[in-house]
Amino acid sequence: MSEFVKPMVSIIIVNFNGKHYLESCLSSLTKIDYDNLEIIVVDNNSTDGTIEFLVQNYPSVITLKLDQNYGFAKPNNMAAKIAKGDLLLFLNNDTEVTPTFVSELVDVLLNDEQIAICQSLLLKPNGEMDSSGDFIDKIGIVYNSKEKINEIREISSARGASMIIRKKIFEELHGFDEKFFVSFEDVDLGWRSWIRGYKVVINPKSVVYHYGGKTHDSIKNEIAFHGLKNQLVMKITNFEPKYRINSMLKFFFVYGFRELKILLDYKFTGKTKMTSTKYERTIAAKPSIKVIIKAVFWIITNQKYLSEKSKEISASRKVSTKELEQMNVLSDIKK
To answer: Which of 164, 233, 269, 277 has its CA 20 to 30 A from that of 51?
Structure first.
């Protein structure tokens, strides 16, 4: 009787001037208990000596050096195309992993063929909760759960900081949407997985410590633009037509109301109620009026892309929006 061979895992890390993080990340990967794997680092044209560091210290790591910063989606897609593994594990460079984090993710997929994606439990370096999964409400607003969990559970989408997906399903979904550039690519991928009839879960036994990069002031507006634009794209393409206009109108109304409430809470109490909830609304960066106008203009001028993506999702849809609501994949968040 032949011994069972666990599937090969391709760990994919996108890096941009993050050598100081990458050193700790790769060091922690040398201590894991899963050996049927390869590591691919995609470098977005860093200028901090990342490539030299990899060549000198990690010659076995497959390195792709790009000619400019392509964000998150495209570099991951490029790595996925050359990956030899049956499973793709996307990992942020600002993480430190625990020894069993890969095996715990793999075991979940091996035990249930319907599961497409599994996320690790993300903790901050001091042990506080960073993320126990993302949840999407009925109008498409995304919330990050900070709830402490002990068992595997279904989530709306997995965080790209540490998530594993079957390569064949990643290819079926055409990978991350490269129009997103940065922000919410992982949410879009998870949402589309559910639409195709797959499941997304989190396994709290797979633990990863996530530092969380600090956004530089000079690029905050750019990240805010992509964050808002991508949220609008998801509503237009992932909701069925009869839900789109309603979700868009409610989104802007609710979004504006909640922003005002947060400002008033801060003005009168010096803090916001968001900090004490189990679910924290996910925003890449708060958009200014200028950024909002820019995002809306992008939507108006990219109708061909939106139409093509909507048609593709509709053609492959196996689970309706109504069914996703009944399954609590899309549900009102009780904070």
So the answer is: 164
The residue out of 188, 210, 232 marking a domain boundary is 210
What DSSP assignment string belongs to 162-198? EEEEEHHHHHHTTSS-TTS-SSSHHHHHHHHHHHTT-
pLDDT at 266: 41
Please give the helix or strand (H or E) that residue 263 lies within, else none.
helix 241-269
Q: Are 217 and 182 in contact (CB under 8 A)?
A: no
CB 29 within 8 A of CB 11: yes
Buried b or exposed e, range 235-251, using 16+ CB within 10 angstroms: bbbbbeeebbeebbebb
Which residue do the tokens 């968001």 mark? Answer: 274
Which residues fall within 8 angstroms of residue 26, CB to CB, at 6 or more apart? 39, 57, 58, 61
List, for the chain, all residue ranges whose pLDDT scores fall below the cut of 50.
1, 215, 217, 260, 262-264, 266-267, 269-276
The helix (run of H) or strand (run of E) holding residue 220 is helix 220-238
237 strand-pairing partners: none
User: Domain range spanning residue 304?
Assistant: 217-326
- The CATH number assigned to the domain holding 104 equals 3.90.550.10
Please give the single-letter amino acid code of residue 251: F
Q: Give DSSP secondary structure letters for 271-285.
A: S-GGGGSSEEE--SS
Per-residue confidence (pLDDT) for residue 332, from 0 to 100: 84
Phi-psi region of 157 (alpha: psi -120 to 50; beta: other; left: phi over 0): beta
Same domain, 103 and 150: yes
Tokens representing residue 227 in the block = 């964050």
Pull the structure tokens for residue 190. 């998870």
∠ CA 284-254-306, rounded to 5°: 60
Q: Is the dihedral of CA 149, 107, 321, 139 positive or negative?
A: positive
Residue 118: name the closest of 147, 143, 153, 142 by CA: 153
Quick one: tokens of 258? 């909640």
What is the spatial distance between Cα 72 and Cα 4, in angstroms, rounded to a whole number? 35
The predicted model scores a pTM of 0.91
Say if residue 202 is in the same domain as residue 145.
yes
Q: Out of 162, 188, 210, pick the residue that ends a domain.
A: 210
* Residues 251 and 102 reside in one and the same domain: no
